[in-house]
UniProtKB/TrEMBL annotation:
GO terms for molecular function: DNA binding; zinc ion binding. GO terms for biological process: DNA-templated transcription. This is Xylanolytic transcriptional activator regulatory domain-containing protein. PANTHER family: PROLINE UTILIZATION TRANS-ACTIVATOR, REGULATORY PROTEIN GAL4. The lineage of its organism: Eukaryota, Fungi, Dikarya, Ascomycota, Pezizomycotina.
Length: 573
């Protein structure tokens, strides 16, 4: 898969072009930006270094290490595959056995530490007990975090594929550790390391065996999706959006061949062939979803927004049964007992939430002016005359309310709370709550007001379940509860105002009293803290541009700005 835009060229790249037909070997160039790193001395790699001397901590015995790796795989590998399991274990075994590494294995050692740290965070104590009843997984996880933070630049000094994975996993760790700024920074580091090793263009890669090739593709698509999600969550520009890349989707390896029991769907692969849906199909479906939304970082006209909207709708139609949440309605209670069923159920619920979340992102700018909420959407212009009319408000309502209804899938949500996806799911549900609050306040007379409040209540109950009492879930619940109080307060003010107006109109002439009451009720109930402008039932595209004092034919309008949902939420308070 590739995205073609203008490609930049470094000065050193021109140097290579200049001398390519004249010199077989260039001079040392590691001090020049984009130059080649200095050649390593093979003798240095022959030295075996003690792990504790390198990072200040020993690795646990082999049985405990194996349990922690298993816990990591259950918590993250289905969600973000960053290596090949069998190859990882094969490289890990001699390091555990000898307690030593070569100099070139330092980045891999850092990856081991981070994998074990995440595994220790999510491991069940019952799994550790038979091997060492005194092993404290929580303490060991915090010790590993301290060691990683002290020696992280080991993974960055010699930029490798493991360096990208380390940065990405540390970003996830910091999200779980309430260090959101560091999470943002670590994703950026991973993105830049990926660029430094040319991960975005596989035509520049050296010859690789099949497994190495697929792992590099896995890591590329993982950091690409992380960059897109980070841009969405933080309201910042994506690094990769609009950039040129050429990396094909990864094929299945023997660690991702598991299929869903009782189902046998096929997916259409990038080359047009059909293959059975496996646990890695999730990533192959998720990455196009982020590619579609990468367009949302550009300055967009309404026509472009409709185009992205249409692509989202088409994407949803392509999902196989294995990745649709409704497919697990009759087997939800079995997901605990069956490992493969558990993975597909987790993938289905996170995909559905991400799909609806992307609709919220796409139409987020319209929330800031309630007149724009009634703009009609035409994802398929040719079918507009025969299709049911849907407005921005309709789509925001449908997506946010459906996200709240994952409350009905509490068994799967409990499983998700024990994985690394919990932070992303928490934030997506929090976003749905913000949208619901803003929709409610945009029109207190809406027939959907009760439905909005009920959906908010569901989200407030869901968040502790998925967040497991983490700071992210606790803070989200507190903020959404405050939003509920604001909605109630505004309703009370509107009712009191209406009662006052009713009293005044009752004392006026009977002939005009009824009409006056209706007008007063409509005027007061439609007031909100977000916008005091009047709202027409349906507003066409031209009205929107005129309201902005701009015209679509002559100006580009940043209708999909990079403002974060947290900034939008500030308007509520």
């Amino acid at each position: 898969m590739s995205s073609q835009t203008e490609q930049t060229t470094s000065t050193f790249h021109l140097v290579e072009q200049l001398f390519q037909n004249h010199l077989t070997k260039l001079r040392q160039s590691d001090a020049i930006p984009d130059g080649h790193p200095i050649s390593k001395n093979p003798a240095d790699d022959g030295l075996r270094l003690r792990v504790k001397d390198v990072v200040g901590i020993d690795l646990p015995p082999a049985p405990i290490t194996s349990v922690l790796v298993d816990a990591y795989l259950q918590a993250n590998h289905w969600y973000l595959a960053l290596f090949h399991e069998q190859s990882f274990r094969a490289r890990l075994a001699p390091i555990i056995r000898t307690g030593r590494i070569s100099a070139s294995e330092k980045p891999f050692l850092m990856l081991i530490l981070i994998v074990l740290m995440i595994g220790a965070r999510f491991v069940c104590p019952e799994s550790i007990g038979p091997h060492d009843a005194l092993f404290d997984s929580a303490l060991y996880s915090s010790q590993l975090l301290e060691a990683v933070e002290k020696h992280l630049f080991i993974a960055l000094h010699d930029v490798t594929l493991e360096s990208v994975s380390c940065a990405l996993l540390m970003s996830i760790t910091y999200l779980l550790e309430r260090k959101t700024k560091l999470a943002f920074i670590m994703t950026g580091i991973g993105v830049r390391v990926a660029q430094a090793i040319g991960l975005q263009d596989e035509t520049t890669w050296e010859p690789l065996d099949h497994i190495e090739l697929q792992v590099r593709r896995r890591v590329w698509w993982s950091i690409y999706m992380a960059d897109m999600y980070t841009a969405q969550a933080y309201g910042k520009p994506s690094v990769f959006a609009g950039s040129r890349f050429q990396v094909f989707e990864p094929d299945d390896l023997d660690d991702t061949l598991i299929a869903c029991p009782g189902m046998g769907s096929f997916e259409v692969r990038e080359d047009g062939t059909f293959s059975r849906v496996t646990i890695f199909s999730y990533n192959r479906y998720k990455s196009p979803l982020y590619s579609i939304m990468s367009l949302n970082t550009q300055r967009m006209r309404l026509q472009q927004i409709n185009s992205v909207y249409a692509r989202l709708l088409e994407w949803e139609k392509t999902l196989p049964r294995e990745l649709r949440l409704d497919s697990f309605s009759s087997t939800e209670n079995e997901v605990h007992q069956h490992g493969a069923l558990r993975i597909f159920a987790l993938q289905a619920i996170t995909l559905q939430l991400t799909y609806d979340y992307n609709h919220l992102l796409l139409f987020r700018p319209f929330l800031l002016n309630k007149k724009h909420l009634s703009i009609q959407l035409h994802p398929h212009p040719a079918e507009a005359q025969n299709s049911i009319s849907i407005t921005v408000r309709d789509q925001l309502s449908v997506s946010a309310i459906r996200m709240s209804k994952v409350y009905d899938w509490r068994t799967i949500l409990v499983l998700a709370s024990r994985t690394t996806c919990a932070a992303q799911v928490c934030f997506q549900l929090f976003t749905a709550g913000v949208v619901l609050a803003m929709l409610a306040l945009s029109d207190l007379s809406s027939p959907q007001l009760v439905e909005y409040k009920q959906a908010l209540a569901r989200l407030i109950n869901i968040l502790p379940l998925i967040g497991g009492g983490t700071p992210l879930s606790n803070q989200s619940v507190e903020i959404l509860t405050d939003a509920m109080h604001i909605i109630s307060s505004q309703e009370v003010k509107a009712l009191i105002s209406n009662a006052t107006n009713d009293f005044r109109t009752d004392r006026s002439s009977p002939a005009v009293a009824g009409a006056s009451r209706v007008q007063a009720t409509q005027a007061n109930m439609q007031s909100s803290t977000l916008d005091s402008a009047s709202q027409s039932e349906v507003m066409d595209d031209t009205d929107m541009w005129e309201d902005l004092a701009l015209f679509p034919d002559d100006h580009e309008v940043d209708i999909a700005g990079s403002e974060s949902f947290y900034q939008s939420l500030a308007l509520l308070f």
